[in-house]
């Protein structure tokens, strides 16, 4: 997505901490396991293990009774009383100090730092969430059950440590300020926590805020990294496309976002385009994909642009990307592959679960008077196929007559919601004199009369969703409907089941604010069973 920053001094960036945080799986520490069982039985808690530390990554439940005092105090008391659950032995220093607090989602959170011999243990933190009744509900932790070295009697002078770090940054080092802030901490190594100077060196050359951890015993550099968050150079190549379709939007030059460096091919963070008729498009001078609509590469640009647009739309709704169940996306870090010029004058577009890819035919019009025009050139067609892929990511293998119809209905709904237009396929249906659309979400179809064919039956669902959108607005409707897809708990949902999922999302996150509206539209007007 972003240009790799070129200022990083590779010698100074060690990131030795990676070895600890991505360590091989560790079995739960035996004492922790026993203690956590007690807690689970006592409070009905649920717990997730952190395979790196062998201790819980979270414990959730009614973990304590109401306790007196402020949430931060309660958090400290709870941790002190439950050391073993977090993998800390009684010999460990029990001291936790508050370093942050915030409230979110109805809980008061306190972030605590474990200390030992008066020094913080780097990364040994816990976050505790306390509810309005002063009960501990959530504890998350990154504590390592690890020994802590004794503080040194004879540390190297701080000035020596600064010199060691400055030497490491190279002979061209140019400090931004002579002042080098420092702290003394315990730094975690594979064996134990060791006492270290933590220095922050702010430099012009090499550009960065360089964090150094230097062993106070021997001056060894335990770790170093640049903490400066560089505003990465954003660059997007340009291409000529139809922003929605050739009928409604004239050709325009747009930016193709998230193309991967070196920006020469339509291979991006979210989409890779495959041309079935020709080798892949290559950008011309100035990273420009300069093709006209009759060029074989035009559709590649068009579909790249559309997929990126749809992907962003769903990311905004909380989509996790094609990472788990989509075979192509799983192998390519969430990327969706889109094929253009599929078949010969093929009058359709489709999503294929076995490949996880979407495909767009050229259409057979005008050689076939009843054929369609190029399906790649319409954003709502791309959005429809994309939605099929998205449903398959969260709820793979949905089938059954209602299940297949829901697949189509969701796909139509999101294609129309995204383009803010209840018509689908205005361009691909070449009938200027008729209302030339494939389908329309603005309909009054009712469930009992719906035909079995999935697209036809799906129109009932799309129509009901569209009615909901008209009443509660795009943002709320999109949220409820997207959420309802994620919680579908069966491979063959009925319309009733899908409607119940909508009610569930509304109940948990909106306090049933839209219940009456949903029930009226879906049950009374569309006659989906109660
Ligand atoms: Zn479809």
Entry summary:
With 530 residues, this protein is α+β, with helices and mostly antiparallel strands. It has twelve helices and 20 strands.
Structure description:
With 530 residues, the chain is an alpha+beta fold. The protein has 4 domains: 30-141; 154-182 and 195-226, Nuclear Transport Factor 2, Chain: A (Roll), CATH 3.10.450; 242-394, Elastase, domain 1; 398-530, Orthogonal Bundle (Neutral Protease, domain 2). 30% of the residues lie in helices and 22% in strands. It has a 6-stranded antiparallel β-sheet with strand order 1-2-6-5-4-3, covered by helices on one side. Strands 7, 8, 9, 10 and 11 form a 5-stranded antiparallel β-sheet that branches. The protein starts with 16 loop residues before the first helix and ends in a 5-residue tail after the last helix. Mean pLDDT is 87; it is low at 1-10. Bound molecules: zinc ion. Zinc ion binds next to helix 7 and helix 8.
Ligand types = zinc ion
DSSP summary, beta strand count: 20
- Average pLDDT level: 87
Q: Based on Cα principal axes, name the global outline.
A: flat
End-to-end separation: 46 Å
Q: What CATH architecture of the largest domain would you give?
A: Roll
> Fraction of residues in helices?
25-40%
Poorly predicted runs: 1-10
Give the oligomeric state of the chains in this entry, treating copies of one chain as homo and distinct chains as hetero: single chain
Gyration radius (Cα, Å) is: 29 Å
Q: Any idea of the CATH topology of the largest domain?
A: Elastase, domain 1
Reading off the top of the CATH hierarchy, the class of the largest domain is best stated as Alpha Beta
Q: List the domain count as a whole number.
A: 4
- Sheet with most strands: 6 strands, antiparallel
Strand content: 15-25%
């Amino acid at each position: 997505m972003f240009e790799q920053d070129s200022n990083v001094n590779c010698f100074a960036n060690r990131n030795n901490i990676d070895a600890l945080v991505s360590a091989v799986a560790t079995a739960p520490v035996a004492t922790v396991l026993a203690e956590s069982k007690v807690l689970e039985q006592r409070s009905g808690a649920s717990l997730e293990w952190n395979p790196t530390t062998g201790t819980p990554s979270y414990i959730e439940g009614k973990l304590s009774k109401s306790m007196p005092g402020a949430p931060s105090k309660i958090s400290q008391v709870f941790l002190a009383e439950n050391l073993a659950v977090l993998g800390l032995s009684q010999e460990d220093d029990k001291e936790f100090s508050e370093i942050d607090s915030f409230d979110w989602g109805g809980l008061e959170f306190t972030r605590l730092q474990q200390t030992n011999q008066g020094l913080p243990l780097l990364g040994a933190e816990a976050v505790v969430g306390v509810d309005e009744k002063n009960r501990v509900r959530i504890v998350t932790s990154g504590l390592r059950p690890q020994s802590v070295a004794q503080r040194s009697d004879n540390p190297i002078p701080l000035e020596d440590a600064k010199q060691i770090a400055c030497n490491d940054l190279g002979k061209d080092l140019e400090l931004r300020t002579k002042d080098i802030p420092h702290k003394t901490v315990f730094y975690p190594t594979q064996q134990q926590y060791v006492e270290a100077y933590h220095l922050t060196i702010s430099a012009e050359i090499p550009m960065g805020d360089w964090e150094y951890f230097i062993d106070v015993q021997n001056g060894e550099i335990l770790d170093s990294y640049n903490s400066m968050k560089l505003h990465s150079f954003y660059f997007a190549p340009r291409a000529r496309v139809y922003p929605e379709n050739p009928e409604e939007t004239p050709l325009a030059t747009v930016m193709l976002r998230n193309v991967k460096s070196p920006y020469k091919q339509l291979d991006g963070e979210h989409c890779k385009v495959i041309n079935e008729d020709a080798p892949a498009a290559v950008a011309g001078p100035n990273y420009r994909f300069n093709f006209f609509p009759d060029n074989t590469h035009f559709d590649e640009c068009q579909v790249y642009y559309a997929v990126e647009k749809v992907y962003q739309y769903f990311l905004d709704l909380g989509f996790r990307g094609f990472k788990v169940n989509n075979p192509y996306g799983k192998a390519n870090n969430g990327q969706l592959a889109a094929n253009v010029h599929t078949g010969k004058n093929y009058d359709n577009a489709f999503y294929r679960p076995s490949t996880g890819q979407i495909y767009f035919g050229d259409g057979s019009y005008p050689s076939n008077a009843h054929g369609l025009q190029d399906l790649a050139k319409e954003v709502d067609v791309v959005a429809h196929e994309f939605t099929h892929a998205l449903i398959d990511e969260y709820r793979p293998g949905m089938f059954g007559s209602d299940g297949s119809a829901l697949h189509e209905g969701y796909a139509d709904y999101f294609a129309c919601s995204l383009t803010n237009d209840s018509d689908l396929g205005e361009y691909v249906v070449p009938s200027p004199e008729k209302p030339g659309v494939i389908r329309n979400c603005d309909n009054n179809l009712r469930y009992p009369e719906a035909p079995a064919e999935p697209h036809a039956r799906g129109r009932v669902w799309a129509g009901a969703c569209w009615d909901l959108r008209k009443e509660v607005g795009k943002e709320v409707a999109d949220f409820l409907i997207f959420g309802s897809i994620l919680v579908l708990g069966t491979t063959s949902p009925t319309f009733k089941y899908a409607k119940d999922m909508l009610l569930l999302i509304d109940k948990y996150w909106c306090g049933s604010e839209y219940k009456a509206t949903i029930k009226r539209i879906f049950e009374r007007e569309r006659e989906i069973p109660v």
